[in-house]
Write a structure and sequence with these properties.
By secondary structure, the chain is an alpha+beta fold. It is built from 16 helices and 18 strands.
Length: 511
């Protein structure tokens, strides 16, 4: 029987656990702890913890499941949407509320464990091996206030829930291109979505965040309370605690003129050059991108695109449909379209614009902010990622930025890159044993774009084993990074929250 790396680790873990930990496992199971003890997936502290009944006590304290390796439900609980990073945490807590989160963080602190947090797992960075993983997907409360035009969401909410709830009042959130992504993780990393040029980053619209910090305390961060922590959370990703709820503004959008224009591979260069020129005159109400895509030969792909290379221009316009049609007319005239879905649509259909994958896959991605997107930039992209290239990248996308993204928010935050005009984003899917080849090809493309780059990247497009400290540092300007480091030192001096795009505390403080 053949095993990939993950399977072989699991089999070894189970056999070792069966041989050495059955008695302890039985005792834990009787107390609601599911899994095998005494295995190599667990750190040395576990036998001592079992003796002291600490894990049992944790299971008694929380409402959600507590799982250890080898137990029923363990694999499903730590599996994420992006399967390029595969986790073997020492312990999983399926949190159902704030009390569960606090109990888990306090347990991790008392046993010197790092803490990992996952809702959907769309943007994993490093494996959570040996950590305590808090899964927040059971925390799904959403409350929309149509008077204040705000939404308050719990930690595990996905964008599809907020879109649906807000639409009842003619409102919309600043969601991402995929409706299946978790609200909290997306927003903490910035958030560039279909309304971005008109309304800015999702993080810019956050009013309040409730977060459990490394000391197990629940803190409410806002412009008035813990303003330094509030600044850092909005853009600093998961470095400062476990966010349990978030309140943010909604915008008055019920419909838009949007969809996709799909052009054939032989017109790729022509379309991309035309798109570059077209963006120069677009109003802020128009948010768009252009992607070079190799569509897989899968039955769920529409027949006209199945197994083909195509250029996909994504359109999201907030004005009247007839005005949108006039703006898009010149793009439609560039070349014959394979598929054209651009039309007036309810905002609840916004996910159809990008039509991101809806089934889990192992994906690797990199990004670079661009100061300019000139004719020579297009030529380089076509050479390395076009239909006649030797590459195998699934997608290379160029997003038009500017507009509200270029302006600082009313309440400052850690999100940078305000001077970038465009964003180039490369993604490919590959099994974990081919990760090296996949990431090398992406790096080649991103490196070729550096002459036109700002030197910075976008944190939310750094998933799939892309979490080196140097790469993370490049998501911020030097001043912001130093301030983040100082705030990290205050709230997490032991670097408990390091299973992420990590910003370590200052040296000598325990991290």
């Amino acid at each position: 029987m053949g095993f990939d790396n993950r399977t072989s680790r699991r089999e070894l873990l189970r056999h070792f656990g069966a041989a050495t930990g059955l008695a302890a496992a039985s005792a834990l199971s009787a107390c609601g702890v599911q899994g095998a003890a005494g295995s190599p997936g667990l750190p040395a502290w576990l036998s001592a913890v079992e003796a002291q009944h600490s894990v049992r006590e944790l299971a008694d304290r929380v409402r959600g499941p507590v799982l250890v390796p080898g137990g029923q439900g363990y694999d499903a609980e730590c599996a994420g949407f992006n399967q390029s990073v595969q986790h073997l945490p020492a312990l999983i807590v399926g949190a159902t509320d704030v009390a569960d989160v606090r109990a888990a963080v306090e347990f991790a602190a008392s046993h010197n464990l790092p803490v990992a947090v996952q809702t959907t797992g769309h943007g994993p960075s490093v494996p959570a091996d040996g950590a305590l993983l808090i899964n927040t997907r059971r925390m799904t409360g959403v409350r929309v206030d149509p008077v204040t035009r705000t939404a308050r969401v719990a930690a595990g909410v996905r964008w599809e829930q907020v879109i649906r709830e807000a639409a009842a009042y003619g409102l919309a959130p600043l969601n991402g291109s995929s409706h299946l992504v978790g609200v909290v993780g997306y927003t903490l990393g910035g958030g560039i979505g279909p309304l971005a040029r008109a309304y800015g980053y999702a993080a810019d619209r956050v009013r309040e965040i409730e977060v459990v910090t490394a000391d197990g305390q629940l803190r409410r961060a806002s412009e008035e309370q813990h303003p330094d922590l509030f600044w850092a959370l909005r853009g600093g990703k998961g470095n400062f605690g476990v966010v349990t709820s978030m309140e943010f503004d909604l915008v008055p959008v019920g419909r838009l003129y949007g969809g996709g224009l799909f052009f054939p591979s032989e017109r790729a260069a022509e379309v991309l050059h035309a798109y570059r020129e077209w963006t120069r005159s677009m109003p802020e109400a128009m948010t768009s991108s252009a992607a070079l895509i190799r569509f897989p030969l899968l039955p769920e792909i529409p027949a006209p695109l199945r197994g083909r290379f195509a250029v996909h221009v994504r359109i999201a316009f907030l004005g009247a449909p007839d005005e949108g049609e006039l703006l898009v007319r010149s793009l439609r005239a560039v070349a014959p379209r394979i598929v054209d879905t651009v039309a007036d649509m309810p905002y609840t259909d916004v996910a159809s614009i990008h039509s991101d994958p809806t089934e889990p896959l192992p994906a690797y991605e990199r990004s670079l902010m661009l100061a300019e997107f000139g004719s020579d930039t297009v030529d380089t992209l076509i050479k390395l990622a076009g239909p006649d290239s030797d590459g195998s990248l699934m997608m290379v996308e160029v997003r038009h930025l500017g507009g509200a993204l270029s302006r600082p928010p009313s309440v400052p935050n850690a999100v940078g890159n305000r001077d970038a005009e465009y964003l180039v984003f490369a993604l490919t899917a590959a099994p974990p044993d081919q990760a090296g080849k996949a990431t090398a090809e992406i790096d080649q493309l991103i490196n070729a774009m550096t002459p036109w780059g700002t030197g910075q990247s976008y944190l939310n497009f750094m998933g799939g084993l892309d979490a080196s400290r140097e790469r993370t540092r490049r998501a911020y300007d030097p001043g912001s990074y130093e301030r983040l480091t100082a705030i990290k030192t205050t709230y997490d001096p032991q670097n408990r929250f390091r299973i992420n795009h990590n910003i370590p505390p200052r040296p000598g403080t325990g991290g």
